[in-house]
Predict the 3D structure of the following.
Amino acid sequence: MARTIVVTGAGSGIGKATAEILRAQGHTVIGLDLRGADIEVDLTDADSLQAAAREIAAHHDSIDGIVANAGVTTNSALDLKVNYFGAIDTIESLKDLLEKSSAPRVAITASAASLQPTDPELVALLLAGKHDEAIAYGTKLSEAGPAVGYANYSASKRAIATWVRRVAPTDDYAGKGIAINAVGPGVVKTAMTEQLLSTEEGRAMALGAMPAPLNGPVKAEGIGNVLAFLVSAENASMTGQVIYVDGGFDALPQGRGEDLWHSPKHIDG
Ligand SMILES: NC(=O)c1ccc[n+]([C@@H]2O[C@H](COP(=O)([O-])OP(=O)(O)OC[C@H]3O[C@@H](n4cnc5c(N)ncnc54)[C@H](O)[C@@H]3O)[C@@H](O)[C@H]2O)c1
């Protein structure tokens, strides 16, 4: 059955590919982006986001899915504003409309960067909802240069992946029939990585940090297909999962390695 799905970051890359896949499946897509989508919105600006939510509500009695995908990698606190706070604010501002669906779903584009070394204090500030303190902390990191500033990106993705698992089984989500999951892309060929992947040196650096033994850099459609499934009515029981679509990085020692389950509890008796 045709569904109505909101996709953020629909003007480019993974969001654009996801919107195209959903439209080809016969669904109605409402694309949100700074530019190049159905509704122009700055997800870091509360007034702009509220205006977009009002516009959606004016034309739709309900929505069936949200793909919170928009993101940036700037090695600055903007990464926190868009990738963490922007994603949560998007979902919360549309949740009333989503709850009216008979099969409500949320999917977030996190990142395999959530598996990389980061700044645990920054992750803790984000998860505690300490917006101003997190922004001040992230700004300080960015002033120490891009290598340290990158923690803004990795922390934003680590925190959003954790938030998904935190809220998924609660009354607010599972209790309302809302499945909420994330995708963790590895290196994907989009505008975000175009410059990096355009030289041999950059490609070697990207794939050195995040190896992809299966088929190398991921296509945007490869992520879009998984996001499209996560917001489908068929996804009735999977929730709280972060699915890494990364060419194998997560299974390598640089990711989480082969044993996700740590020491098994000893069987009694
Ligand atoms: N490309 C990769 O290698 C890669 C890897 C892992 C995760 N991701 C994640 O995938 C998601 C999509 O990225 P992409 O690779 O398609 O990049 P992209 O740059 O092609 O697309 C990102 C889109 O988000 C939009 N956006 C940014 N800030 C916004 C704001 N404040 N308000 C509204 N829209 C805004 C941009 O305008 C852009 O259209 C991001 O969350 C990114 O972190 C990308």
Remarks:
- The chain has one domain: 4-247.
